[in-house]
Design goal:
With about 325 residues, the chain is α/β, with parallel strands linked by helices. About 45% of the residues lie in helices and about 20% in strands. The structure holds 6-O-phosphono-beta-D-fructofuranose.
Amino acid sequence: MKRVGILTSGGDAPGMNACIRAAVRTSLANDVEILGIRRGYAGLIQGETMPMERKTVANIIQQGGTILGTARSEEFKTPEGRTLAIRNLQKEGLEGLILIGGDGTFRGGTLLSQECGVQVVGIPGTIDNDVYGTDYTIGFDTAVNCALKAIDRIRDTALSHDRLFFVEVMGRHTGFIALESGISGGAEELIIPEAPVTVASLCSRLERNFERGKKSAIVVVAESEQPGDSFRIAREVKEKTGIESRVCVLGHIQRGGSPTARDRVLATKLGMAAVQALLRGKGGCMIGEVNWQIAHTPLRDTWEKGKQPLSILMEMIKILSD
Ligand code: F6P
């Protein structure tokens, strides 16, 4: 393998830059040329590239976001879009392609690896942690710590005012961020898609807690299809119980910022391992980390097989917040 490409796609995640740095430096150390593709699949379709040298990736390990830029491309989902992308891969003489992203990126990557002769290797990079084949995704730890800092601050004001708060965190269809920030922030209640609760049962738990003398509480809510659903929940709780509350939607601040040490180490390990996989001629897979070991998972499995949060963590909240 003499020439490979690298792109970041989908939502950016802290640690993507550390991963790009590791992949670029591992490639160059093995005499493999590496080309950056800007703006994910959208840039691949348009042929937007940038040369990657040692100095291109200097001083980026601590930066959030992605120096390559990213996008969610609707065009790549069409056969016509992928034909243009494949043409550009061939024009650039790329024998391998590294994709850093989440399940949407790997859906596209699965098709790409079936439709062209280029070896495709994925690296899980998303704050959501919802990718099968890895214990953690790059960016998750930073996002959880960001949410945790916010929860800690909100607890100060919740305690001072004897108030109920709803803190909505990101995670789209999954509750990984809510679960870990909720456990570490001592949340009283958790609302996540994997363990749906009715407003009625939430109300009775909150009322029981308030009757027992609790004066404030924090409910961590995973965003659903539309961010902001926690406003509806708070309104319904007020209607049913009379309990006043405040809502705080954390939003995109969870996606930015300097990656934690844990995210930087994971990103570095996976970036190196992806290049090593390509050097061994291994494609059509995602490089993850399972039980501290590098794991290769077929790209299709990463988005077809669902990943569930550990049920033991969900039980913990119920017991500890009572
Ligand atoms: O990348 C993951 C994520 O941050 C989800 O948690 C969230 O639902 C979604 O992206 C938001 O995407 P966008 O920035 O495109 O609105």
